[in-house]
Amino acid sequence: MKTIAIVSTAGGTGRTTLTAALAVLLARRGRQVVALDFDPQNMLGAQLGIDGLAATGVSQALLDAQTAWHGYTWRNADGVLFVPYGAVSAAQSAQCDARLGAAPRWLADALAELDLPRDGVVLIDTARYPSQQAEHALRCADLALCVTPPEPAACATLIARLAALRGACAHLRIVVNRLNPARDMQRDVLAMLGAALDDNLPLAQRVHVDAAMPESFARGTWLFDDAPHSQASHDLQGLANWLDAWLTEAAAPLDRPDGAS
Predict the structure, then answer these.
(1) Is 242 among the domain residues?
(2) Where are the transmembrane segments (predicted)?
(3) Which pLDDT score is estimated for 93?
(4) Given this model, what pLDDT does residue 256 score?
(5) Which of 122, 96, 111, 126 is closest to 16 using CA atoms?
(6) Is 188 in contact with 182 (CB distance < 8 Å)?
(7) For residue 147, how many other CB atoms are within 10 A of its CB?
(8) 65 falls within a domain
């Protein structure tokens, strides 16, 4: 089992939508997928096709140590096993943060209870970095995808947090989301972001903006089903293919020298 954290350093990046889309696309490739909502906004379930916002979820296990977090699970039509965060008040959210701050291995220990095959994957949608939720997800992630739109404020925030993100997860990749190459400003911002990266931290993928995405969500469908030949659908499929190949390589047993036992 491998764990992939999807993080962002700004709000409104499309991180939750991307997490849900990748969970479904990997499930359709035959992967056993768990999608964990680790963001108090509690929106991942709506993206995965569950009616309404889940009232209970992993937050209940944070608030009550006697509560089993895996008791709050759903499975969507594509076979993705989904764990919601659950609805919390401001006071409860602060209590969850305090519990996570006091127990640095809480999420890692919780994920260790999952019974997934070697080629299974957990996708974690986190609260905006820095946060207790994002720190926990990065700490136990085999791979982190940091999502950013090519906008000045979002990329400036990402660049400012880049060193901390690289220190938090050994395998970090940047995903540029909602790219509109017709905008000169976005091309300038991409150049600024590229100058801050290096060969050890390449872009994993670029996902183009598509006005049909909100309409697909409103209908409870997926853009890559409604418009499979659109650029954004092609981008999402490409990112899913990249992750699928990464998971296959990561799950492969290490080659042993001849005669080793």
Answers:
(1) yes
(2) none
(3) 96
(4) 45
(5) 126
(6) no
(7) 25
(8) yes
Cα–Cα distance measured from residue 261 to residue 248, given in angstroms and rounded to the nearest whole number: 23
User: Are 177 and 148 contacting, i.e. CB atoms less than 8 angstroms apart?
Assistant: yes
Task: Please indicate, yes or no, if residue 259 is contained in any of the structural domains.
Answer: no
Say if 258 falls within a structural domain: no
Q: Number of folded domains in the chain?
A: 1
Which CATH number characterizes residue 106's domain? 3.40.50.300
Question: One-letter amino acid identity for 166?
Answer: R
Render the chain in DSSP notation, one character per residue: -EEEEEE-SSSSSSHHHHHHHHHHHHHHTT--EEEEEESTT--HHHHTT-SS--SSSHHHHHH-TTS-GGGS-EE-TT--EEE------HHHHHHHHHHHHH-TTHHHHHHTT----TT-EEEEEEPSSSSHHHHHHHHH-SEEEEEE-S-HHHHHHHHHHHHHHHHH-SSEEEEEEEE-TT-HHHHHHHHHHHHH--TTS-EEEEEE--THHHHHHHHT--HHHHSTTSHHHHHHHHHHHHHHHHHHHHHSPPP--TT--
Residue 221 in tokens: 């469908």
The span from the CA of 11 to the CA of 253, in Å, is 38
Torsion angle of C-alpha atoms 134, 81, 215, 189, degrees rounded to 10: 30
Residue 261 pLDDT class (50, 70, 90 cuts): very low
